[in-house]
Amino acid sequence: MSRAQCPRCLRPQSHCLCELIPHLHSRTRVLLLQHPSEVGHALNTARLAALGLSNAELRVGEVFDDLETLLNPPGYQARLLFPGQGAQLIAAHKAEDSLPWLLVVPDGTWRKARKLLHLNPLLANLPRVTLPEGAQSRYRLRKAPGPGALSTLEAIVQTLELLEAPRVFEPLLRPFEALIEGQIEAMGAQTYQRNHLDKA
């Protein structure tokens, strides 16, 4: 028999995260395009981002039939948060007379995210932006595929803090940290130290 689930954060009721999820407003609009394989992931940080930001939307799928409408909300200019050739380094975007960004964020493994771009040519054609090098992930349960590799939620927090400084979006990470602590507690300190700390 399955455990009762919170309909909002999709966690078991006994481990509901809703009290830790903030309600933050951003000038930047965030559009999260989540590969279906991520929905059941234990962390599902894209969902945490969408729940914590009032100006965010989460869509799940591989092909998005209404993508042209999604990418062109009135009053915004779309940017794809994804590294690659020609990606512009994100810096403070403070000019009040310029349009705020629609930050489009593919959510999935690198392979699945690239598949989303391949299946949705409108995405691949967007101007790309990327974070400065040297970011450190707080995801202590997974070896990052490379330097600067962040979870979707961490990447969004860092991007918003660059674009909208001095505003702080750190509270979005509270449920993320709680999830990681819960997973470490469930596996036991010895297992965590043996399998994760020794390999750091």
Q: What's the overall geometry?
A: globular
The succession of helices and strands, N to C, reads EHEHEEEHHEHHH
Number of strands: 6
Structural class by helix and strand composition? alpha/beta
**Beta-strand fraction estimate:** 5-15%
Low-confidence runs: none
User: What is the annotated CATH architecture?
Assistant: 3-Layer(aba) Sandwich
Report the end-to-end length measured between terminal Cα atoms: 38 Å
Pfam families: DTW
Keywords: S-adenosyl-L-methionine, Transferase, tRNA processing
Protein name: tRNA-uridine aminocarboxypropyltransferase
Family: Belongs to the TDD superfamily. DTWD2 family.
Q: What's the topology here?
A:
Layout: E1 29-34, H1 45-52, E2 56-60, H2 67-70, E3 77-81, E4 88-89, E5 101-107, H3 110-119, H4 121-124, E6 128-130, H5 152-163, H6 174-187, H7 189-195
Parallel strand pairs: 1-2, 1-5, 3-5, 3-6, 4-6
Structure description:
Belongs to the TDD superfamily. DTWD2 family. Pfam families: DTW. This is tRNA-uridine aminocarboxypropyltransferase. It is an enzyme of class 2 (transferase). With 200 residues, this protein is α/β, with parallel strands linked by helices. It has one domain (24-199): Alpha/beta knot. The protein is 30% helix and 14% strand. It has 7 helices and 6 strands. It has helices at 45-52, 67-70, 110-119, 121-124, 152-163, 174-187, 189-195; strands at residues 29-34, 56-60, 77-81, 88-89, 101-107, 128-130. Strands 2-1-5-3-6-4 form a 6-stranded parallel β-sheet. Helix 1 links the parallel strand 1 and strand 2. Helix 1 (45-52) runs parallel beside helix 5. The radius of gyration is 17 Å and the shape is globular. The model has no long low-confidence stretch (mean pLDDT 85).
